[in-house]
Amino acid sequence: MTSVAVPHLPRISDYVTWHAQRQPHAAAATLGATELSYAQLAARVDALARALLAAGLRKGDRVATLATPHPDYYAAFLATASVGGIWLGLNPRYQLAELARTVADAEPAVLLTRTQIGARSYDAEVRALLGGSTALRRAVVLGDDPPVIGAESMKSFVAAGELVADGELRAARAACGGRDPCLIVYTSGSSGTPKGALLHHDGIVASSRLQDEIWPVDPLRVVNYFPINHVGCVVDCSTPCLVAGGTLHFLEQFEPRACLELMARRRVTLWGSVPSAFQLQLELDDFESFDLSAVQLIAWGGAAMPAPLIRRLRLICPRLATNYGMTETTGAITTVDPTDQIDVLAETVGRAVPGVEIRLGDDRGEPVEPGVPGEVQVRSRGNLLGYWRRPEATAAAFTPDGSFRTGDLAVQRKDGRYRLVGRLSDMYKSGGYNVYPREIEGVLEAHPAVALAAVVPVADRLWQEVGVAYVLARHTVTADELAAHCRAQLAAYKVPKRIVITAELPLLPIGKVDKRALRARAAEADGADAG
After folding, report:
1. Helix axis angle, 437-445 relative to 479-487, nearest 10°?
2. What are the residue ranges in the chain where pLDDT is below 70?
3. Contact status, residue 125 vs residue 99, Cβ threshold 8 Å
4. Among residues 264, 207, 266, which one has the least CA distance to residue 238?
5. Is 215 helix (H, G, I), strand (E, B) or coil?
6. Cα–Cα distance, 205 to 12 (Å, whole number)
7. Every domain range in the chain assigned CATH 3.30.300.30
8. Who is most buried in 119, 149, 283, 461, counting CB within 10 A?
9. What backbone torsions phi and psi does residue 137 show, to the nearest 5 degrees?
10. In this structure, are residues 349 and 322 in contact, taking their beta carbons and an 8 Å threshold?
């Protein structure tokens, strides 16, 4: 990592060149035994940027990439952003209908794609996307993957770009940056149809620099296994590492042991993940055998971390941190500075980060009374520009004074830190009372036998709605024991009607619990019981 203060540059892609000039031989990215220096990454980005211009890409055109977390994805995003294009990632786990829906909405001009990942061939998908979109002009096969009819090789695509003059490349880059859009991230769709959040250079740069300042790690070495269609991959992991001049160690698919092996081998300094992934790793029988002595900071986001897991992590590294943000805010809007305080880490998401204004508001955008749960409404330079081609959804996402409505409910503690109590969409009413699933999940996770809990509502004839809790257990425990534990700490209307001990919970690709799938499961089980 360079010791020179890193400036705020106009384009997120500028940091490749900035570091290539100052530390050309430093490792920028690795995958397996392959390692790219900053000079090599800069050359790859420039070559692909020229190829995109030669293909007719203009400012505002979209480029899609179907790939795993890989240096190819990294170069594709940076090259696209550098010349004014808007990049979007496609998850290789998607089926054709999902891929087609995203491509139809974003209308990319170019698709950069893998055609074989593991045992799955994408030949049919690529041909279908080419045939089904009038906007999609070119498909380019990444790496040495098998050819597909209608697609061209990366070698020939890049060769065409060699005719683009230096002046044309410089002009394209000079014409973009700042609040120009450079990234579309489609929201997970756990509560509805996915929408494309449009993010910009300035927000990504500011968020990345702020994360590096709040969570200093030197040298910065981090594993990135997150799917490339998710903000966790691009903004939470990749761009802060880029801005800091650190090294991204790619892992194409998360596997608990493989990730720990990579961390030990590459002397990873920032262990960043989501609670469910930490849980899987800590449960390995031979976890203690992995050398994690290089870790300087452990950080997580995406969900609350149970206190017992935090205590175990504290034994590995006493500098622990968490934050809170979402796709639409680009990066974190609150953060917990590195600490070893269990209460702060388990019960809060910290304080607002510098430059971010947070209000806990009601439906009209008016502040709620102290101690009353309110929707987190935020003003930030990182807020999305809007939802791609969804003006009505964009308008509905903001209050009249321009604050973004997160849909999350929180309470502000006396110390100024925020405690999330759930989603507006997760909250349910039981007997006229508001019930916040996160409160119940926290009580369940405080039981020594519980590793993770998720609570969802089901309809009830008498109480309108009641809760169903799904629990991953560390060791043998009964539903009756957990119900008694809840009754000792919660009002009767909050105690789940049913507690299900399960071997696994459905997860979204990023590792969060899929509440939508759980609600469907609970409703189906409730209907079967009624029948």
Report:
1. 110
2. 1-4, 188-192, 528-531
3. yes
4. 207
5. coil
6. 6
7. 428-530
8. 283
9. -95, -30
10. yes
Using CA atoms, how far apart are residues 63 and 153, in angstroms rounded to an integer? 16
Q: For helices 71-82 and 38-54, give the axis angle rounded to 10 degrees.
A: 60
- For residue 161, give the 3-state DSSP assignment: helix
pLDDT of residue 363: 75
Give me the helix-helix angle, 38-54 and 14-22, nearest 10°.
140
- What are the helix (H) ranges across 120-255? 123-132, 154-161, 166-174, 201-214, 231, 239-244
Q: Is 109 strand, coil or helix?
A: coil
**Can you give 10-73 as a three-state secondary structure string?**
CCCCHHHHHHHHHCCCCEEEEECCEEEEHHHHHHHHHHHHHHHHHCCCCCCCEEEEECCCCHHH
CATH code for the structural domain at 428-530:
3.30.300.30
The predicted pLDDT at position 1 comes to 46
CATH architecture of the domain with range 38-199: 3-Layer(aba) Sandwich (3.40)
Q: Give the span between the Cα atoms of 397 and 43, in whole angstroms.
A: 40
Q: Look at residue 530 in the predicted model and tell me its pLDDT.
A: 55
Q: Give the separation between CA 79 and CA 121, rounded to whole angstroms.
A: 26
Q: Which two tokens stand for residue 163?
A: 């005719």
Three-state SS for 514? coil
1.25.10.10, 3.40.50.150, 3.40.50.12780, 2.60.120.280: which CATH number matches 254-423? 3.40.50.12780
**What pLDDT is stored for residue 366 in this prediction?**
86
Q: Where in the chain is the domain with CATH 3.40.50.12780?
A: 38-199, 254-423
Contact of 66 with 122, CB cutoff 8 Å:
yes
Query: What is the tens place of the pLDDT at every residue in 327-355?
Result: 999 999 999 999 999 999 999 999 999 99
Q: What is the pLDDT of residues 462-520, one digit of tens each?
A: 888 899 999 999 999 999 999 999 999 887 889 999 999 999 999 887 778 888 899 99
* Single-letter amino acid, residue 438: R
CA 136 – CA 325 distance, rounded (Å):
33
Element at 298 (helix H, strand E): strand 297-300
Asked if residues 409 and 427 have their Cβ atoms less than 8 Å apart, the reply is: yes
The residue written with tokens 């392959």 in the block is 34
